[in-house]
């Protein structure tokens, strides 16, 4: 065997070893740092720890900002990331900027928690390869079903959302409106309820832009009945409860209104601090998601894509239905939530 051939064989073995030994770095990019998304970080870290040669990079804006989220994704691209899971803050902007660059660089993209809206998916059908998270329309319907358990004859409603252009939140609003009105809408967020099946929204949804203090102030206006009066309040995210001390201070004076169902409060998510509030009957119902599983499945899916294994293009994570009566077990299981007819 010639010396040249030996060198070529050695180089070939070294190259194969280097590729197989490479650490795959997958990024999970939340909308912002908060109680909900921190759980997705735990899921992604646990999944990465179970796969040899895989690392989870969790990085997102301190507060919700599509431009900051876009800049973070661009930085990850420049660092040579191997895959990106992103909770979409604003579809069009991300699709036409950082995520377009990621696709051009050959970096696989999946979405979690918040998918692209329908027009963006239609325009860029191959931009993301999978969605992992709640079925947001059905989640909205579940919120509506739970409200009807305490308001079977209808009533007046205020919905609270985050960003008014957030695709997953608009799907939830459409789900609520569909469940309460028994109507079908062409596109999210549907139409404001006005004497539909006994339900009326007294105003367009409050938008808090993911600002927790603002979310609490908006809810306080409903509990106080001034300047906006309604007998039902649904938050399509967990914002007002995510500063538990601020929420408790705000709502304590209205305990009698809660106890008498003068105002029915249904809030999304069921983190431990929210279940503590539920235990103290400072809300009526929480419909929980599973952000831990979203983060875990995001890493597993990206790994399958990169290693050319079969993967599911849509993974819906479970919901859970929590009340003051089952709060102690609700966090430990994911019972099926009824979604109505």
UniProtKB/TrEMBL annotation:
The record's subcellular location field reads: Periplasm
Looking at the record, the residues that make up the Periplasmic binding protein domain are: 26-307
Taxonomy, superkingdom: Bacteria
User: Entry's InterPro entries?
Assistant: Bact_Solute-Bind_Prot2, Peripla_BP_I, SBP_2_dom
Instruction: Name the SUPFAM superfamilies for this protein.
Output: Periplasmic binding protein-like I
Query: What does the sequence similarity comment in the record state about its family?
Result: Belongs to the bacterial solute-binding protein 2 family.
Indicate what this protein is called per its UniProt record. Answer: Sugar ABC transporter substrate-binding protein
Question: Which organism does this record belong to?
Answer: Shewanella colwelliana (Alteromonas colwelliana)
């Amino acid at each position: 065997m010639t010396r040249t051939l030996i060198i070529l064989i050695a180089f070939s073995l070294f190259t194969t070893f280097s590729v197989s030994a490479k650490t795959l770095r997958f990024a999970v990019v939340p909308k912002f740092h908060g109680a909900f998304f921190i759980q997705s970080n735990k899921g992604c870290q646990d999944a990465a720890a179970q796969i040899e040669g895989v690392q989870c990079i969790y990085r997102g804006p301190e507060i919700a900002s599509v431009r900051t989220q876009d800049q973070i994704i661009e930085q990850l691209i420049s660092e040579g990331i191997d895959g990106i899971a992103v909770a979409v803050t604003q579809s069009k902007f991300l699709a036409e900027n950082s995520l377009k660059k990621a696709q051009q660089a050959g970096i696989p993209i999946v979405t979690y928690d918040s998918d692209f809206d329908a027009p963006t998916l239609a325009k860029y059908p191959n931009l993301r390869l999978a969605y992992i998270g709640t079925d947001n329309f059905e989640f909205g319907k579940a919120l509506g079903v739970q409200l009807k358990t305490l308001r079977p004859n209808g009533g007046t409603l205020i919905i609270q959302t985050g960003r008014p252009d957030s695709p997953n939140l608009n799907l939830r609003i459409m789900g609520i409106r569909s469940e309460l009105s028994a109507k079908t809408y062409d596109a999210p967020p549907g139409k404001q309820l006005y004497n539909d099946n006994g339900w009326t929204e007294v105003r367009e949804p409050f938008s808090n832009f993911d600002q927790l203090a603002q979310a609490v102030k908006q809810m306080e206006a409903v509990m106080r009945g001034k300047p906006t009066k309604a007998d039902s309040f649904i938050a399509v995210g967990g914002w007002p409860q995510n500063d538990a001390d601020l929420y408790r201070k705000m709502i304590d004076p209205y305990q009698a209104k809660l106890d008498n169902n003068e105002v029915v409060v249904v809030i999304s998510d069921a983190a431990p601090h929210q279940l503590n509030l539920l235990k103290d009957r400072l809300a009526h119902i929480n419909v929980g998601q599973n952000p831990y599983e979203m983060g875990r499945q995001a890493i597993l899916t990206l790994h399958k894509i990169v290693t050319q294994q079969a993967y599911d293009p849509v993974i819906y994570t479970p919901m859970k239905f929590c009340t003051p009566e089952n709060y102690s077990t609700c966090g430990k299981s994911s019972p099926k939530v009824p979604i109505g007819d």
